[in-house]
User: Fold this.
Amino acid sequence: MRKACRGGGGYDLIICLEVLSYIEFYEDKLGRFSNIGEYLYLSLYIPDNPIGFVKSIDDLIATVEQYYNIENKIIYNDESVFLLGKSLLFKKFGS
Assistant:
């Protein structure tokens, strides 16, 4: 996956807007994202009885914290979450 990224150096920012609920094993994807991107911006609406793969804001945040240092977190109306995190695993090319 690294070879597809800026000459093997990775991306500055990975953006996930309202998609993680549709991705089975989203936890694994977040781990992969943390290897190829220095930052993650994520927004997700999670209703009271979600039918997608992300079941709660707490679960999502706990998963993100495995791979990222959350620098900004906004939770709106207890249903929407907006996160900006810096990867714990990303290594810039040449470092």
Remarks:
- The longest strand covers residues 37-45.
- The chain has a mean pLDDT of 91.
